[in-house]
Amino acid sequence: TMITNHMPTAELQAIDAAHHMHPFTTNDELAEQGARVITRAKGVFLTDSEGNEILDGMAGLWCVNIGYGRTEMAEVAARQMAELPYYNTFFKTTHVPAIALSQEIARLAPEGMNNVFFAGSGSEANDTNIRMVRTYWAEKGKPSKSHIISRKNAYHGSSMGSGSLGGMDYMHAQGGMPIPGIHHIGQPDWWAEGGDMTPEEFGLARARELEAKIEELGEDNVAAFIAEPVQGAGGVIIPPETYWPEIQRICDKYEILLIADEVICGFGRTGNWFGSQTFGIRPHIMTIAKGLSSGYQPIGGSVVCDEVASVIGATEFNHGYTYSGHPVASAVALKNLQILQDENILDHVRNTAGPAFRAGLEGLADHPLVGGASVIGLMGSLPLTPHKESRAKFAGEAGAIGLMCRERCFANNLVMRHVGDRMVVSPPLVITPDEINIFMDRARKALDETW
Ligand code: PLP
């Protein structure tokens, strides 16, 4: 039988559970209650197979920056598909969409970052980065500079390389990660781990773990440090103000390449084009994906500074993906960047939606379950706690309250995700103040029902 949106939901869910292996999901979860079937979306609202209108507080997976249902994106894709659906960028061939997109990314990127290596996703781009930084140092005559330092609870993707860069223990427990030569220092999560220190003291202490790790490994053995400007999947962890300047000082002092993973922070999420700009970071490489195309097509890449790119290009870099610079994905991403500019969406984040979002989340912080609100641009988190002052954890299974709250949000037609007992939010950047009010009303109802 043909599967369509008009089939009964239970039937769709049964077929889905029988054949479709979902990321980060157990069979039991799907058997208990089938996956919610999303049929269409417009703006910030999803529609499911039962006709519910769900406010998407996560922009899909932190990616639909321009919102859903942009027909101009569909038109660009259709036109490109008809004209040149595919060609590769290997072996001295190129095409207009990849040319135009690389130029536009270079124009928007921080000064001196004029080079883009394309990939199909953030995971692939981070795999590229591992090989690129090691190759860079080898070409510079320092092959021992091969170790890479990352952070616990970081998320950099799911492939062997990017999952190894990531600092998720539950991922490392499966399938032989991390690969050798990757090390993890503590994260700047003051809320959960700061103890009695002030945020400023804690930020410095966590940054100095990088220096200690470099000294332990020997600076001649360290290629790079990778970090998200703000950890997203780790729980929207906004580092204390002291953190990034100290990290930058340490990278400069020891000649360590700095990779900023901008997969979530890039393309307006923190109110600037890149999180690196928001935090005053000077990376050598930035990982991009997600908001690059607002999720309308799969595409990612590494934005590379001139020095690293010139060394990498001096000999053949034996690396690339069939879909590096895919013409349809590139054309769609370029259109997305145009929309972000034509509609002044970064201004909207900085001056309209961001302040309303901050006020709304800070308003929710008076709820007895909520310990506070961390917000930057249009990403934020609400840690749930039984005791605001001490930032205590709930007794019992970690994340149980967060999961319950997420389920109550979903039942109230709001997508909010939980990371342990933290609720995290990252709506489309085009969300309006009225929609933010709807968000906050639904979130408060869900919190009341969880309490
Ligand atoms: N880096 C960061 C910071 C991410 O948040 C993600 C995905 O969530 C990735 C990399 C991996 O990207 P992808 O899922 O496109 O492979």
UniProtKB/TrEMBL annotation:
This is Aspartate aminotransferase family protein. SUPFAM superfamilies: PLP-dependent transferases. PROSITE patterns: AA_TRANSFER_CLASS_3 (PS00600). Keywords: Aminotransferase, Pyridoxal phosphate, Transferase. GO terms for molecular function: pyridoxal phosphate binding; transaminase activity. InterPro entries: Aminotrans_3, Aminotrans_3_PPA_site, PyrdxlP-dep_Trfase, PyrdxlP-dep_Trfase_major, PyrdxlP-dep_Trfase_small. The keyword Transferase applies. Coiled coil: none annotated. Belongs to the class-III pyridoxal-phosphate-dependent aminotransferase family. It comes from Roseobacter ponti. It comes from the Bacteria. Its cofactor is pyridoxal 5'-phosphate. The keyword Transferase applies.
